[in-house]
């Protein structure tokens, strides 16, 4: 049986994963509005992944005879400055999510709640991958640049990353490696 504190923390994480999904969906809309279709597709897919993270928590609470509670979710911003600024904001957001996961792991361990501690290990690994993925995208942006055809080339890379991700055949690190242009 989960403690009240653990249920509250896991419900808080459900809320954060919902927010992450809405944030990336809004970023996807912003990118599509700017004509960056590859970036928009990549972010839209990522928004769907965040819903998957939310569902895992939702199911874990139910399997533990606790009640998931959906709270109100803050509206995400609608303007992200530039593509580079947007990916910097994503990395900062993922670092914030990692800090929240670490707090959850710490709380589970100190309560000797080893079931929740074990459940959370998936999120620990996922956050390492996600931070690595977005750092790699920022490195790629740095290399390609956004001047001249740079933004077009970057967007093409994200089209290919989204396709590889949809095919499910590569790790986060592979996804961020610049691919051959067609
Ligand atoms: Fe992006 O990992 Fe969940 O929030």
What does this molecule look like?
- Helix 1 packs antiparallel against helix 3, helix 2 (37-63) packs parallel to helix 5 (150-167) and helix 3 runs antiparallel to helix 4.
- By secondary structure, this protein is mostly helical.
- The protein has a single domain, classed as Ferritin, CATH 1.20.1260.
- The protein contains six helices and no strands.
- It is elongated and about 60 Å long.
- Bound molecules: hydroxy diiron-OXO moiety (OFO).
- Hydroxy diiron-OXO moiety binds at residues 17, 20, 50, 53, 94, 97, 126, 130.
List keywords for this structure.
182 residues; mainly alpha; Ferritin; 76% helix; elongated; binds hydroxy diiron-OXO moiety
Short description:
With about 180 residues, this protein is mostly helical. It has helices at about 5-35, 35-65, 85-110, 115-145, 150-165, 170-175. It has a single domain (about 5-175), classed as Ferritin, core subunit, four-helix bundle (Ferritin, Up-down Bundle).
Low-confidence stretches: 170-174
Report the total helices. 6
What is the CATH top level name? Mainly Alpha
Q: Quote the beta fraction.
A: under 5%
CATH homology-level superfamily: Ferritin, core subunit, four-helix bundle
N-to-C terminal Cα separation, in Å? 54 Å
Radius of gyration: 18 Å
Query: Could you give a short account of the major beta sheet?
Result: none
From the helix content, strand content and strand pairing, which structural class follows? Answer: mainly alpha
Q: Give the overall shape, derived from the CA principal axes.
A: elongated
CATH architecture: Up-down Bundle
